[in-house]
């Protein structure tokens, strides 16, 4: 098993097993315990994000971290300050990723000479930007941005 596979397994374990377990509510918890648990969950989510960034650097691809949230009503979601903060954190993570991708693509050159090298160069560039385009057109991502617009308008 190589390093990227180990990181993928660790990322999946944290996001699919540990975070859902941590996010389950237990009856009778005190506000202090609740606050500590929320802080711990936030730190685990940040760690998962760092793992995702490391995987992207190892694999050379880009994957936007889209939080696992449900938005039914944009206006109602915009009033939830914790949700708005999670969305803002995610969007702030996207900026350097997209900038790094753009910089990397600008600096790439065709490998080899001739028309086939040029075709492969543009095919690879198209695949990179198409992947980003598909992620940016995710319906949840669009709702997240709508929530931020409403939240900023209400401030």
Rg over CA atoms: 19 Å
The helix tally amounts to 6
Q: In terms of per-residue confidence, which ranges show pLDDT below 50 for 5 or more consecutive residues?
A: none
Q: How many domains is the backbone divided into?
A: 2
Shape summary: globular
What's the order of the H and E elements?
HHHHHH
* Strand count: 0
Q: In percent, how much strand structure appears in the residues?
A: under 5%
Cα end-to-end separation: 49 Å
Helicity range: over 70%
Seen as an oligomer or otherwise, the chain set is: single chain
Q: Helices and strands: which structural class?
A: mainly alpha
pLDDT averaged residue by residue: 83
Largest sheet: none
Write the layout of secondary structure elements.
Layout lengths: L2 H21 L7 H29 L14 H6 L1 H27 L7 H22 L2 H16 L1
Helix pairs in contact: 1-2
Family: Belongs to the dynein heavy chain family.
Organism: Planoprotostelium fungivorum
Keywords: Cell projection, Cilium, Flagellum
């Amino acid at each position: 098993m190589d390093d990227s596979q180990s990181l993928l397994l660790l990322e999946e374990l944290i996001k699919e097993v540990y975070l859902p377990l941590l996010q389950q509510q237990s009856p009778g918890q005190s506000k202090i315990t609740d606050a500590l648990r929320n802080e711990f969950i936030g730190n685990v989510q940040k760690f998962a994000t760092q793992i995702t960034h490391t995987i992207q650097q190892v694999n050379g691809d880009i994957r936007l971290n889209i939080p696992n949230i449900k938005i039914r009503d944009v206006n109602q979601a915009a009033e939830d300050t914790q949700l708005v903060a999670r969305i803002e954190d995610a969007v702030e993570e996207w900026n350097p990723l997209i900038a790094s991708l753009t910089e990397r693509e600008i600096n790439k050159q065709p490998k080899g000479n001739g028309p086939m090298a040029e075709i492969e160069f543009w095919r690879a560039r198209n695949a990179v930007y198409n992947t980003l385009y598909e992620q940016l057109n995710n319906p949840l991502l669009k709702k997240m941005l709508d929530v931020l617009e409403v939240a900023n308008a209400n401030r």
